[in-house]
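new request in #modeling-help
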Amino acid sequence: MKRYRSLLLALLVGALCAGTCLAQAAPQPLTVSNADNAWMLVSSALVLMMTGPGLALFYGGLVRKKNVLSVMMQSFAMMAIISLLWAFLSYSLAFDSGSSVLGGLHHIFLRGVGLAPDADYGSTIPVQTFMIYQLMFAIITPALITGAFAERMKFSAMAVFLVLWAIVVYSPMAHMVWGKGGLLNAALGGAFPTLDFAGGTVVHITSGVSALVCAVYLGKRLGYPKEMTPPHSVVLSFIGACLLWVGWFGFNAGSALSAGSLATSAFVATHFATAAAAASWAAVEWLRNGKPSALGAISGAVAGLVAITPAAGFVHPMSAIVIGLLAGIFCYFMVAKVKHIFGYDDALDAFGVHGAGGTLGAILTGVFANSSINPIFKDAAGNVLPSGLMEGNAHQMFNQFAGVGIAWVISLVGTLALLFLVDKTIGLRVTPEQEIEGLDLTLHGEEGYDHAA
Amino acid sequence: MHKIEAIIQPSKLDSVKDALIQAGVTGMTILEARGHGRQKGHTEFYRGREYSVDLLPKTKLEVVVPDLIVDKAVEAIISVARTGSIGDGKIFVTKIDEAIRIRNDERGEQAL
């Protein structure tokens, strides 16, 4: 035991040394930093934890008892199906160089995705680490959409629709923002450099806007809104939300693709924005309904996490708090007011939180981004240029709106087309009888809670 | 023999149980129930949405007692289950024709 411990210590010291030495040496060819790689592997695991159990519990608690497993199974299905798709095809579509809109096919079946670093995708970690890290984002994004059509969509239709969605909507969006030669890529000289550190446009706007389309296209659940019952277990949702908060450190701080000071900055911004949004949502609710609810506080936290996602890694902690406060209030009104005015049944508020929060966050990133945190823009001589509006770069707002606009359009058009396709072939909705009896029993042949056992 | 059915606040179960035993009741059946009387329900808010919850969690207690202690048992329940506010519940008393102990076929008050 002792022997192992000293061995482990030696490894750790070695890893740390490798991390610091690398920064000074600027090696050519690229070498792997064990420290960076360790953080990125941990981050990858944290982001997977956000989908299962995090999101699965968060969503599972919000539905009725008879549908809890169906909702959890949708998230879990993404963990399995999207992983396979990623290895076969969609990693290449997102991250191969290709065109400015979509990657090529050089990396299908993970060809050429080895253990050496790639200068453009985290120059100190194996590109395979980058690939598996990005996979976790590709998993949670479609899983977020499932909140919109919960309790009424066929499992088969859901699986086919989301696989197609990952190809048609997610892959191009990820490529444009993060891929080599991408149209919106700020780090690699895209035409409309959009600041999106961890996926405000790629993950949250795409999933949120697609969720809205799904909710409208599928129509309301039977009995909505008159006969709906409250969430069956806010306790499950609470646990899920806390797992999301923790996992999100991997999501945002991990997006630094290294274990350095930028990761710290993103981590700190993420935490403070989340705390601020939890407080502001609960406060608005307290003022309007007389009580601060647990569901309100955790919903606010998720709204804050969403809104800070594009901004983390670009903004100061105080800016993060402002972003969080605004996100909590804005998303509350989207969920509690706007949804009822328009009458769509976004069952678990995927649009109200992710679409609205993601859009707000992407715009505010353009306002608050600061080059002292992340000197992303440089002139030809290598001098650092200002990042956001507050710093004097008003033009960045245009780029942010371009990124937001493209994400909205690709999500609206892509989702609508795919839903139409799946509706005409497989059919989207379960039968009314299945919906009344519950999807757990009718689609999966089991029940979440067996009260007779 | 009389059957006493009492629908009470769940939080009062322990004290009602003790009071009944004090009053000489030997056995009882407890059920978790949902329902409402004149109280109707209450309103809950989830993400700003109002839900009216009209079936509230209650505890239903059933005891069958010898005629001699019916009044005492009813008094015992009332004395501890009453808070004076709406939702305290109700007690129903009915006559029982027969009681049978399955184990040895004892009949009547013997079987209680």
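bot summary: Chain A has one domain: 30-444.
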